[in-house]
Design goal:
Layout (H helix, E strand, L loop, with lengths): L1 H26 L5 E3 L2 H15 L2 H12 L6 H10 L5 H14 L2 H13 L10 H8 L2 H16 L6 H11 L1 H8 L3 H17 L4 H14 L2 H5 L4 H4 L2 H21 L1 H10 L3 H14 L3 H8 L1 H7 L1 E3 L1 H33 L1
Helix pairs in contact: 1-20, 2-18, 3-4, 3-5, 6-7, 8-9, 9-11, 9-12, 10-11, 10-15, 11-15, 11-16, 12-15, 15-16, 15-17, 18-19
Length: 340
């Protein structure tokens, strides 16, 4: 029995050493959380969404959205897609609101307003009127022409708009040095410009593009006719291109309204990348997931405990179990002595 107790003591000591090593590794840069594998994301999100999108929860969210002005029909339709049926009074209110907002006169008025001023666009049917020009090369050229005219008159230039237009026009040449796909980079830059004009771009994301404007492009060299490759600084421009690429993939997977809605919830660049990753798995259900689960939970579901943390817990549990066995053995021996 003595050798067994000594063996348990050695095992406990080794388990403590391993748990201590894992703790040091985590302290010096090891992450507590890592991203889930892409192939598991869809099932994780689908399960969570099925549990969260209860009839009562969906009805409460729809009640809140119907009381807004203007109504966000993109979110309303996304929630309706998860609904299994609405109470009769809520359905009647829904039908009345849709008839009001989707009448020919209301749609024509909203379309004209959105086409003229992106800041007054909603995520309803009028959005297509504002996107018609702004997601094309024509929109990029209009921005560069407008900002160039203001610069010649001594007015302040919108550096973010200029950078996004430059990325949109030069996407094919720019991605050669920085990676990505020219189509998604261009699409993402165009959508970011729309989000900027609509007031749906967080300051943290704006800083990525304003830094690219200041440090990523030699505008003087470009004005002298220098090639794009020589007039750009890859290191400074790369974060803006990566973010544009992420959002371009998001746009391709979910559509413009969903992407703009998700951008309205984003506050930081890591959040943008996390939501873009979740949207790649969820597709058109991204909006409903964001509404029912909430942003924090949606992002957390895309993560899992790192292998280092799991190893730390396992080693600590082994040490506790071994010590418990040693203590239990001593207690049993003491009880036997007392009984004798």
């Amino acid at each position: 029995m003595i050798w067994a107790r000594r063996l348990l003591g050695v095992v406990a000591f080794l388990a403590l050493l391993v748990s201590g090593w894992q703790a040091v590794t985590l302290w010096h840069g090891g992450g507590f959380w890592v991203e889930r594998a892409e192939e598991t994301l869809e099932q994780v999100y689908a399960t969570a969404l099925a549990r969260a999108a209860t009839p009562d929860r969906v009805a409460a969210l729809l009640e809140a959205r119907l009381s807004e002005s203007p109504r966000n029909w993109h979110v309303i339709d996304a929630l309706l897609a998860e609904s299994t049926g609405l109470p009769p009074d809520l359905q009647a209110r829904m039908d009345a609101a849709r008839a009001q907002d989707f009448s020919l006169a209301a749609r024509a008025r909203a379309c004209g307003i959105c086409a003229y001023d992106l800041s007054r666009c909603t995520l309803g049917p009028d959005l297509a009127c504002g996107l018609g020009v702004n997601l094309t090369v024509a929109g990029d050229l209009l921005v560069l022409g407008r900002e160039g005219l203001w610069a010649s008159q001594g007015a302040e230039v919108d550096g973010l708009d200029v950078t996004l237009a430059f990325i949109g026009i030069g996407a094919t040449g720019l991605v050669v040095a920085t990676g990505g796909t020219s189509y998604t980079v261009k699409a993402g830059a165009g959508l970011v410009r729309v989000a900027h004009r609509m007031g749906r771009l967080a300051p943290d994301l704006r800083r990525v593009f304003t830094r690219a404007f200041r440090e990523g492009v030699d505008w003087a060299a470009l004005a002298r006719g220098a090639p794009v490759a020589r007039a750009t600084r890859s290191e400074a421009l790369a974060p803006a291109l990566r973010l544009s690429d992420d959002l371009g993939v998001l746009l391709e997977r979910t559509g413009p309204a969903a992407t703009l809605h998700l951008l309205g919830a984003v506050e930081t660049v890591p959040e943008a990348r996390s939501l873009a990753r979740s949207a790649r798995a969820l597709g058109p259900r991204s909006t409903a997931a964001l509404e029912t689960l909430g942003k924090s939970r949606l992002i957390r579901l895309g993560l899992r405990l790192s292998d280092e943390v799991i190893a730390l817990f396992a080693a600590f549990a082994a040490a506790l179990g071994t010590f418990a066995a040693l203590v239990a053995g001593r207690v049993l021996r003491l009880m036997r002595r007392l009984l004798r």
